[in-house]
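INFO  loader      accepted 1 record
INFO  loader      residues=92
INFO  predictor   begin
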Amino acid sequence: MSEAIETAMLELIGKLAPGKSVSPEEVARAADPENWRRRLGHVRAVARGLARQGRIEITRHGKTADPEQFKGVYRLRAPQPVDAAQAQGDGS
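INFO  predictor   done
INFO  writer      dumping C-alpha cells
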C-alpha cells in the first residue's frame, strides 16, 4: 500500500501549480477510495520519508515543517526554491 500512496502523492503534487499543496485526505482518497480513512497514518509515514529525501515538503500554516517533529493538521507540496538571502543566513 505504501507504493500506491507514494505514487498517488507524487502524482497529485506534480499536477499542482507552484506553491500549492494537497491534503493528506486527498492523497488517501486517490490511493484507496473505499478505505481512505484507514490510510491516513500511512500517508503521514510516506510523507515523512519523502520529505526526508527532499522530494516533497510537509507544511503547517503555509510554512515548511520538520518531518520528524510536525504534529496536527498538515499539507503536502513540491519542494520550494530556497531564497538566496535565506540560504546565506542574511536576515535582511
